[in-house]
């Protein structure tokens, strides 16, 4: 990134310009460097009210981090539906193509604490708040379409197993430890989601390149009362991409903020990420037509069976002004729904409906969290709720109860026909029982469907993912139990992981006997546009500004981000000088590399750049002079995705594939 650009990024909104500093009570402050003392070397005085207020406020700056999804990053944007969907739903924001609805999205990891690295192997949260004219709709989803458990009562168990182990608080930000794999082996419902997490889906390249899934089955309800089962999807127009695990691990150290920086900078540059809202719809009469239960959150509705209709588009186009005030204080809740949307009987969803408001009471300090600016709806709020901690409103009037005559019975309720929310009148009958439905008990078929649908490199990465994670467990018993579980899904996976982690291959092959595939499960199923990718140009020796300029022109024309990386920052005031040094840049931070040499000896950091780019299967272009100098490096210049060329355009050709797995 050029220095000019960096200066622009610092151009954030401010509200203190030319303002006098005051206490929180509005008293102007004359001194903010020294506390009040008796003489220059004497004792400090407690009567220094400004000092006491400043320290008191600072002492309480932190609030409890989220118990899960603590590490997150958010942005504002807008959503617009393509066409009127009133056939399915009465929701205002889904039936008015002329309207844009403001949204706020928070992406997150699940396991790690607030300061953990972005690039860990984990599920990503993808929570969207729609500020519709009829109130707030929160789509609180993940980047993997299924979940680890089927019943909410198991959530504390899952999270206790996933989180750092209590006796030593390790590991941070990952599931590669005994308690998680013990849970995995003892709770087979977690198999499907874990297989996804061990694939490339668990290490996304950026937030811009993840899918989003509401996971649960919801209902859409139209104005005639007709109801449809629905699953919500977000399809990224930036394509889907993952990291290589070795690269992800390096990134933990090189740039702990890798994902948030990518999103923040894309938005600052005006390169706004976009997702299409997708709907999978099942009519009520089709409820039992499938070989899975549509209420089971560990199951997908394979897209080849139930196609996704793309019905609208979301664009993220504004970074937050203050991360704490907005992103940290955002309170999402799957129970925030609007007329035209309703719940299904998915037992995981039903449990979440309790949890999300409950958690905010501890995290945001009381029941008035909806009054925090980021959580306020855009339409007016009127009810008889009063008082409580952190009340921000001054409620007027004598009457705060329903029904009343003193205030004409206002605020009044609204019938359904005029926009009042009415729950879908589902007929329910049955005994009170505590029992998992028999229809939820196939834990392995869809895990197999997923593995069958991967390309060979994606399958190999999944083997590597499991081998790393199970290999990191200390207990031989846990390792063996985990491999026994894999043996119930896929024999090849079990055999290869068993070998890698040093346990027995189970005697009997219990794998799912199916070679069924779904065409939308491989990450390579979505096109990956070139725009938004990045190129490092490693400059070895003296390369003219004109040459750099011709490369920069190609990059700009193709909407590629770039940096000229050299030994010393020289000509930094020039647009076409070295923009980063080998001390500050690293090959893992870029999607590709061009090595430009003047024919002098290849510098050790340039060689390292080339070797790591090669190792991580990324496009690599070297000019003729560099190709001779790199002859002794650990890479094969004849391998796929390596180009020897002095033509700036070659990088476009090299990006035809984003990774060369066959290298
Ligand atoms: Fe969450 N989850 N969850 N979860 N979840 C929270 O709410 C919970 C589940 C998800 O960016 C918490 O405000 C239970 C599924 C996201 O602020 C908490 C169960 C899915 C986020 C909570 C689940 C999610 C959360 C923690 C089992 C995908 C971050 C802080 C019934 C569909 C939202 C908070 C943000 C956050 C509970 C299962 C996604 C404790 C009890 C399934 C994206 O309320």
TrEMBL record:
Reaction equations catalysed: 2 H2O2 = O2 + 2 H2O
Per UniProt, location of the 3'-histidyl-3-tyrosine (His-Tyr) cross-link in this chain: 333-356
Keywords: Heme, Hydrogen peroxide, Iron, Metal-binding, Oxidoreductase, Peroxidase
Source taxon at top rank: Bacteria
Enzyme class, broadest EC rank: oxidoreductase
Enzyme Commission designation: 1.11.1.6
Ranges annotated as biased composition (Basic and acidic residues): 1-20
InterPro entries per the UniProt record, alphabetical: Catalase, Catalase_AS, Catalase_clade2, Catalase_clade2_helical, Catalase_core, Catalase_haem_BS, Catalase_immune_responsive, Catalase_large_C
Chain segments annotated as transmembrane: none
Cofactor section: heme
GO biological process assignments: hydrogen peroxide catabolic process; response to oxidative stress
Alphabetical list of PROSITE patterns matching this protein: CATALASE_1, CATALASE_2, CATALASE_3
Similarity field: Belongs to the catalase family. HPII subfamily.
Function: Decomposes hydrogen peroxide into water and oxygen; serves to protect cells from the toxic effects of hydrogen peroxide.
Official protein name in the record: Catalase
Source organism phylogeny: Bacteria, Bacillati, Bacillota, Bacilli, Bacillales
């Amino acid at each position: 990134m050029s220095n000019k650009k960096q200066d622009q990024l610092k151009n954030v909104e401010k509200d203190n310009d030319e303002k006098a500093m005051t206490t929180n009570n509005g008293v102007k402050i004359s001194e903010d460097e020294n506390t009040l003392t008796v003489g220059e070397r004497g004792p400090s005085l407690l009567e220094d009210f400004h000092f006491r207020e400043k320290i008191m406020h600072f002492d309480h700056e932190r609030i409890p981090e989220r118990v899960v999804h603590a590490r997150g990053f958010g942005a504002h944007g807008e959503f617009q539906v393509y066409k009127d969907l009133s056939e399915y739903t009465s929701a205002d924001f889904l039936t008015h193509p002329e309207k844009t609805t403001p949204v706020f999205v928070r992406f997150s990891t699940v396991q790690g604490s607030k300061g953990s690295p972005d690039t860990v192997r984990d599920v990503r949260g993808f929570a969207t708040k729609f500020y519709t004219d009829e109130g707030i709709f929160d789509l609180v989803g993940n980047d993997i379409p299924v979940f680890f458990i089927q019943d909410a009562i198991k959530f504390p168990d899952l999270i206790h197993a996933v989180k750092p182990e209590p006796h030593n608080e390790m590991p941070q930000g990952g599931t590669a430890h005994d308690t998680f794999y013990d849970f995995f082996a003892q709770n087979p419902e977690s198999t499907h989601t874990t297989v996804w997490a061990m694939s490339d889906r668990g290490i996304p390249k950026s937030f811009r390149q993840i899918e989003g899934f509401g996971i649960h089955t919801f209902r859409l309800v139209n104005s005639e009362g007709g109801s449809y089962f629905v699953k919500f999807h977000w399809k990224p127009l930036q394509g889907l991409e993952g990291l290589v695990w070795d690269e992800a691990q390096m990134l933990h150290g090189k740039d702990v903020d890798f994902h948030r920086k990518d999103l923040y900078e894309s938005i600052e540059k005006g390169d706004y990420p976009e997702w299409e809202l997708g709907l999978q719809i099942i009519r009520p009469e089709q409820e039992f037509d499938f070989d899975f239960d549509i209420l089971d959150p560990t199951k997908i509705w394979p897209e080849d069976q139930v196609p996704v209709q793309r019905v609208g588009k979301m664009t993220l186009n504004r970074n937050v002004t203050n991360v704490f005030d907005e992103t940290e204080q955002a309170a999402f809740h799957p129970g925030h729904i609007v007329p035209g949307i309703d719940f299904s009987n998915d037992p995981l969803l039903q449990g979440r409906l309790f949890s999300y408001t409950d958690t905010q009471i501890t995290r945001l300090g009381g029941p008035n969290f909806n009054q925090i600016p980021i959580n306020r709806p855009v339409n007016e709020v009127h009810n008889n709720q009063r008082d409580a901690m952190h009340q921000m409103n001054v409620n007027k009037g004598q009457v705060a109860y329903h029904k009343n005559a003193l205030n004409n019975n206002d605020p009044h309720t609204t019938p359904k026909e005029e926009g009042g929310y009415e729950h879908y009148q589902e007929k329910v009958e049955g005994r009170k029982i505590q029992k998992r439905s028999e229809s939820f008990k196939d834990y392995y078929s869809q895990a197999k469907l997923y593995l069958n649908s991967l390309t060979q490199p994606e399958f190999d990465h999944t083997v590597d993912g499991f081998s790393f994670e199970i290999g990191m467990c200390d207990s031989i018993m846990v390792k063996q139990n985990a491999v026994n579980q894999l043996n119930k899904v896929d024999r090849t996976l079990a055999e290869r992981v068993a070998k890698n982690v040093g346990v027995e291959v189970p005697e009997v092959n219990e794998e799912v006997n199916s070679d069924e595939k779904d065409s939308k499960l491989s990450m390579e199923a979505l096109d990956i546009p070139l725009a938004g990718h990045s190129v490092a140009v490693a400059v070895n020796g003296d390369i003219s500004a004109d040459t750099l300029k011709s490369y920069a022109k190609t990059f700009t024309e193709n909407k590629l981000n770039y940096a000229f990386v050299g030994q010393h920052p020289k000509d930094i005031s020039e647009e076409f000088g070295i923009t980063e040094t080998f001390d500050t840049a690293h090959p893992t931070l870029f999607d590709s590399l061009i090595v430009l040499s003047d024919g002098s000896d290849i510098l050790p950091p340039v060689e390292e750049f080339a070797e790591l780019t090669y190792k991580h299967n990324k496009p690599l272009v070297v000019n003729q002079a560099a190709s001779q100098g790199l002859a002794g490096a650990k890479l094969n210049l004849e391998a796929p995705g390596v180009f020897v060329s002095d033509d700036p355009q070659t990088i476009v050709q090299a990006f035809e594939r984003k990774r060369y797995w066959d290298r």
